[in-house]
Amino acid sequence: MTSEIISRETETQRRGVKAVFDLKGWSLGHALQINPSLARKISSVLSDSFPLKVRGIHLVNEPMFFRPVFAMIRPFLPDKIKQRVHMHGTDFHHTLSDFFLPDVLPPEYGGNGSGIEDVCHAWTQELLQSENLLKKIASHPTGDTSTSAGDALISEENETKQLTEGRCLGP
């Protein structure tokens, strides 16, 4: 749902997205579910199916057993994506600022933007306001629907930079 909404934003289409994935709580049980077939599918989504340019994937709090799992996924990724994956570990508060403006990062990640809870609440409201459009997309065989200007979901003035920089994004 998130990618459907943000892919309609003109500025996001132009700039692409950077996302932060917090892997705190990612367990060995999660790792054991990753196999070569799933690794290939993950790669396909990132390189072929995702509707936007992936400018950066930033992983924080990744457990020590994540690196071997990522080593299984990595061979399937295009070189451009490989170069855009950054593992920050648990000491990410200083390194994320090399990739994101402080106003975009929430305080929980070393920035001075809005907190994660506030941003996620606002994004949930955007999704709820987009319910009719999401139903329309889901009911269309290809998911390819055209919208009029009146169907605009997110105005360019409405936190474009925050969405573009990867605030509260998920697949």
Write up what this structure looks like.
The chain has 171 residues and is mainly α. The chain has a single domain, classed as Phosphatidylinositol Transfer Protein Sec14p (3-Layer(aba) Sandwich), CATH 3.40.525. 44% of the residues lie in helices and 9% in strands. It contains 10 helices and 3 strands; from the N terminus they run H-H-E-H-H-E-H-H-E-H-H-H-H. It has helices at 2-6, 10-15, 28-32, 36-49, 66-73, 79-84, 92-95, 116-129, 131-139, 160-164, and strands at residues 17-22, 54-60, 85-87. A 3-stranded parallel sheet has the order 1-2-3. The protein is globular, with a radius of gyration of 17 Å. The protein starts with a helix and ends in a 7-residue tail after the last helix. The model is unreliable at 148-171 (pLDDT under 50).
